[in-house]
Amino acid sequence: xxxxxxxxxxxxxxxxxxxxxxxxxxxxxxxxxxxxxxxxxxxxxxxxxxxxxxxxxxxxxxxxxxxxxxxxxxxxxxxxxxxxxxxxxxxxxxxxxxxxxxxxxxxxxxxxxxxxxxxxxxxxxxxxxxxxxxxxxxxxxxxxxxxxxxxxxxxxxxxxxxxxxx
Length: 166
Ligand code: K1U
Ligand code: ZN
Hints:
By secondary structure, this protein is an alpha+beta fold. 28% of the residues lie in helices and 25% in strands. The protein is built from three helices and seven strands. The strands form two sheets. A five-stranded antiparallel beta sheet has the order 1-2-3-6-7, sandwiched between helices. A two-stranded antiparallel sheet has the order 4-5. The longest helix has 17 residues, at 149-165. It starts with 25 loop residues before the first helix and ends with a helix. It binds ligand K1U and zinc ion (ZN).
């Protein structure tokens, strides 16, 4: 397994729209393993393939305290949304920035697991927020795009300054 490089906002590659996975094969399972190591090392509770410059519809999530409840979503689709709720979000591609975003309170998702089997999941709370945040990454959308142009521009400048210092 390997820890992969995570793209940082405002890298234009974060705005790439991911393509569906055609076959859940050994290459996909290797990428899942590498993304898992990357997410736990960061540390984070979710990671989309887009963030490691792989533009396919794959995301992983583990919102457990014990970091032993990995969930894999391949070609995910939200088939039902209910309610609205604001939640403080972070992003491994925008380190150090936490902002409130309003999203659906609960979602019903359909996806394939790491064995290529279809499953349906009803999510609420942090899992619901995380699924919607990661699915936005697959659409090329970063959570700062929900913020005001002024906040977004301040965050962009802060990130550019940080990347020049590295
Ligand atoms: O997509 C990502 O960049 C991962 C992101 C997921 C997320 C967190 C909170 C709300 C919405 C989406 C993160 O994991 S940011 C880091 C984080 O939240 C965290 C890190 C360590 C322990 C607990 C949380
Ligand atoms: Zn993110």
